[in-house]
């Protein structure tokens, strides 16, 4: 049995839909046929049988761009509810597999540093949008709507958020595509949320393994890019707030152990360096609030898709429906106090940047 997965759109580009689709098809095919196989091979060489993703059976562009993958449902793998989110044990299971993925990618980079100079280099392969482009206009409207919602919780939050320059928010998409200050970097999944993670359960209903799909926007960068994305989009609201530090420290222990297990010869960052890097990339987390949360956590009958942003087709009716969705409001309401107290809402400007 096989499962068909259509190719979606990378929103941070000025290319046409067809050009984008072709580029993503190439990237995902490379991930399955080259990168993931090599990562699994690195673990095999070190005596461990680690599988990160389903097998790739076929890539075709007829009648449209489609990737045919192994049907994981046969082995009991399934998606969790995006409305409910992942509990602490499920989150740790994902992070354990993610740490192994990151560690193997770091080894691959040491063995072949030329691997960074192809389509997984986000900075080199993406073009920033012009100020008058449809997606910038859509992002501004999403941002303004988020501020309105935040104000209903507390003006302390909205006052902080009105100081975020939109260009800094948008640039954070590229900022995470750089190594940590210590030089450490890994291959990033880039879209690590509930719908791209499949869980296998035992007879008692306990999650025992995960496999990850949809590598269309993978890139080299800070491992915190995946951590931030997973936490913001997929973890139960009370879990991510109550166990935030525990989750970050768990991932670090898993990463360090994995790097040692695959005999990584480069510098291994400290947990303090990982946490500092996470805060350095907080504007990436803030970007996910208006852009990704309404898509990944919206459970209303009104669907917001990336293509709506890309084409500038956002209606006021859609915006109101999405941001008034009970689940989206729950996410925003749980995160804002935590982000405010932790300093996530404080503006992070680049050199010579002035808050407006």
UniProtKB/TrEMBL annotation:
**TM stretches of this protein:** none
Superkingdom, taxonomy of origin: Eukaryota
Tell me any Pfam family this protein matches.
Answer: EcKL
Give the residue range of the signal peptide: none
Q: Which InterPro entries match?
A: CHK_kinase-like, EcKL, Kinase-like_dom_sf
In this chain the CHK kinase-like domain maps to 67-261
The protein here is known as: CHK kinase-like domain-containing protein
Q: Which species expresses this protein natively? A: Chironomus riparius
């Amino acid at each position: 049995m096989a499962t068909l997965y259509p190719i979606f759109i990378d929103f941070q580009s000025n290319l046409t839909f067809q050009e984008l689709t072709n580029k993503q098809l190439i990237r995902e095919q490379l991930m399955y046929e080259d990168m993931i196989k090599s990562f699994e091979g690195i673990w095999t060489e070190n005596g461990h049988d680690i599988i990160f993703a389903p097998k790739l059976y076929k890539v075709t562009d007829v009648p449209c761009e489609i990737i045919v993958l192994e049907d994981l449902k046969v082995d009991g793998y399934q998606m969790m509810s995006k409305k409910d989110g992942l509990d602490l044990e499920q989150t740790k299971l994902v992070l354990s597999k993610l740490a192994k993925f990151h560690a193997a990618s770091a080894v691959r980079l040491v063995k072949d540093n030329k691997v960074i100079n192809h389509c997984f280099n986000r900075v080199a392969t993406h073009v920033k949008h012009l100020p008058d482009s449809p997606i910038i206009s859509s992002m501004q409207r999403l941002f303004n709507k988020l501020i309105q919602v935040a104000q209903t919780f507390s003006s302390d939050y909205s006052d902080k958020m009105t100081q975020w320059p939109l260009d800094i928010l948008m640039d954070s998409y590229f900022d995470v595509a750089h190594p940590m200050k210590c030089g450490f970097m890994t291959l990033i999944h880039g879209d690590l949320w509930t719908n791209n993670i499949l869980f296998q359960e035992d007879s008692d209903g306990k999650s025992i393994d995960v496999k990850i799909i949809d590598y269309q926007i993978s890139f080299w960068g800070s491992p915190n890019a995946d951590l931030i994305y997973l936490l913001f989009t997929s973890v139960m609201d009370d879990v991510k707030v109550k166990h935030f530090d525990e989750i970050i420290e768990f991932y670090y222990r898993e990463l360090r152990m994995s790097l040692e297990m695959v005999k990584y010869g480069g510098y291994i960052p400290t947990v303090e360096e990982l946490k500092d890097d996470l805060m350095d990339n907080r504007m990436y987390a803030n970007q996910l609030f208006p852009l990704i949360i309404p898509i990944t956590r919206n459970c209303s009958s009104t669907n917001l898709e990336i293509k709506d942003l890309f084409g500038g087709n956002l209606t006021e009716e859609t915006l109101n429906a999405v941001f008034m969705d009970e689940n989206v409001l729950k996410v925003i309401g749980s995160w804002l106090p935590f982000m405010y107290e932790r300093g996530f809402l404080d503006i992070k400007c680049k050199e010579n940047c002035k808050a407006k």
